[in-house]
């Protein structure tokens, strides 16, 4: 159970700057939000956001290690992340393919590095790695488990044109101003640098539609209902990164490595078939995985 004592109105859209919005009752209800929390849709660009959102102080409490990293559902965080390693390896290979003659070694920054698993794999694959993580508990875990030192230095203190790759895995939707973060990524990347993002395609993806229909999805407000400040679709995420100056390299709503078939699990086979169709037919799988390139200026 969580208590939020202060709420902050989010008057302006991070993508288009419009202050006009309408309440999205379907989204609000499906996330189990109770007043004053609600999801609104921007009248200018259709980007959804939580409005109002918990105050910064309350968010700090929601993001404490116990509340956040060790409260990800039925699995421990480490077990959950274990299931993502094949996906991370696949992503690192894609990034390598997309890089144009990187400096040896390519320099990669992860924003929101959590407990360091992606960076450990990137380091093994030959990248020079740097990671920012605001949770002190997660930083301690990364050091203890992988010997990786993460920092809480704000990106604003890092120099221009200093990275070949920036990676954010399920981070952008948590931030108070994703448009501003994308501009920061543009500034920090070298020419031809690669931005790799993954965000959830929440609530209205084909799998969640079925789960809500069958009553298999939660409808109560808990700390996880309030972590996300923004709710992206493939369209709104693409608009945001293009507005920030990036060229789209590729976009998928169901990367195949999200459901590995080894070791074999029937559930993954069903997900693979169903969500591949959702992705191919109408870009409506469970995530938005986006690769963009900073064009040579
Ligand atoms: Zn907007």
Largest sheet: number of strands, sense, barrel closure:
6 strands, mixed
Mean pLDDT: 91
Gap from first CA to last CA: 50 Å
Q: Count up the domains.
A: 1
Helix content: 25-40%
The CATH superfamily label reads: Vaccinia Virus protein VP39
**What's the CATH architecture name?**
3-Layer(aba) Sandwich
| CATH classification class | Alpha Beta
- Runs in which pLDDT lies below 50 for 5 or more consecutive residues are none
Instruction: Tell the overall outline.
Output: globular
Characterise this structure:
With 297 residues, this protein is α/β, with parallel strands linked by helices. The chain contains ten helices and twelve strands. It has one domain: 3-Layer(aba) Sandwich (Rossmann fold). The chain has helices spanning 25-30, 56-62, 77-82, 85-98, 117-124, 136-146, 178-188, 206-213, 234-243, 266-282, and strands at 7-8, 21-23, 39-42, 48-50, 53-54, 107-111, 128-132, 163-169, 189-200, 230-231, 247-252, 287-293. The strands form three sheets. It has a six-stranded mixed β-sheet, with helices on both faces. It has a four-stranded antiparallel β-sheet with strand order 2-3-4-10. Helix 4 crosses helix 5. The model has no long low-confidence stretch (mean pLDDT 91). The structure holds zinc ion. The site of zinc ion (ZN) has 8 residues, from loops.
């Amino acid at each position: 159970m969580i208590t939020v004592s202060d709420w902050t109105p989010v008057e302006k859209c991070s993508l288009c700057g419009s202050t006009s919005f309408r309440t999205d009752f379907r989204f609000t209800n499906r996330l189990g939000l109770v007043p004053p929390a609600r999801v609104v849709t921007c009248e200018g660009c259709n980007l959804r956001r939580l409005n109002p959102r918990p105050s910064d102080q309350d968010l700090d409490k929601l993001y404490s290690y116990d509340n956040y990293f060790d409260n990800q559902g039925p699995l421990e965080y480490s077990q959950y992340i274990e299931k993502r390693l094949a996906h991370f390896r696949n992503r690192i290979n894609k990034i390598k393919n997309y890089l144009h003659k990187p400096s040896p070694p390519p320099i990669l920054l992860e924003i929101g590095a959590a407990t360091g698993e992606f960076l450990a794999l990137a380091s093994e694959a030959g990248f020079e790695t740097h990671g920012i993580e605001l949770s002190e508990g997660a930083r301690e875990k990364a050091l203890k488990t992988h010997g990786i030192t993460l920092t809480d230095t704000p990106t604003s203190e890092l120099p221009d044109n200093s990275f070949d790759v920036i990676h954010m895995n399920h981070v952008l939707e948590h931030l108070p101003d994703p448009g501003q973060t994308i501009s920061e990524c543009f500034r920090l990347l070298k020419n031809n640098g690669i931005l790799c993002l993954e965000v959830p395609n929440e609530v209205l993806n084909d799998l969640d539609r079925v789960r809500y229909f069958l009553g298999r999805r939660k409808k109560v407000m808990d700390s996880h209902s309030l972590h996300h400040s923004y709710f992206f679709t493939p369209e709104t995420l693409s608009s945001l990164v293009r507005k920030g100056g990036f060229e789209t390299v590729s976009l998928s709503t169901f990367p195949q490595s999200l459901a590995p078939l080894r070791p074999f699990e029937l559930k993954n086979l069903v997900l693979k078939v169903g969500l591949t169709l959702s992705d191919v037919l109408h870009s409506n799988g469970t995530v938005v995985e986006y690769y963009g390139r900073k064009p040579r200026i």
